[in-house]
Design brief:
InterPro entries: ABM_dom, Dimeric_a/b-barrel
Number of domains: 1
Number of helices: 3
Shape: globular
Radius of gyration: 14 Å
Protein name: ABM domain-containing protein
CATH class: Alpha Beta
CATH architecture: 2-Layer Sandwich
Pfam families: ABM
Strand content: 25-35%
Order of helices and strands: EHEEHHE
Largest sheet: 4 strands, antiparallel
Distance between the termini: 12 Å
Strand order of the largest sheet: 2-3-1-4
Structural class: alpha+beta
Length: 107
Amino acid sequence: MSGLHFLAILSPKHDRVARVEEIVESVSSYVKENEPGVLQYQWFRAGTEEEPKIVVWERYADQAAVDVHKSSSKLAWLIETEQKESNLREAIQVLPLEPFTGWASRS
């Protein structure tokens, strides 16, 4: 699978999960409509009820697509919203991923 891969981990406060999901759904819709260089932007629920996690697997066509995403008004809105509302237990963690084995699809 080509491109640049990242995993972003959000750790919402247990009573703010619904709000964080609302925020990331808005971001996801924006990315799909406005950032064609984003090849995959898939969100998952993880963790426990006491320590929930929301994780996004991101795949970009190239570094230019990453740069567009990082400088987007919607990502800035997500950060500003977090600063105002304090929905997360800790800072967002972004991990670059380097595929080395396995497969993503049987097609």
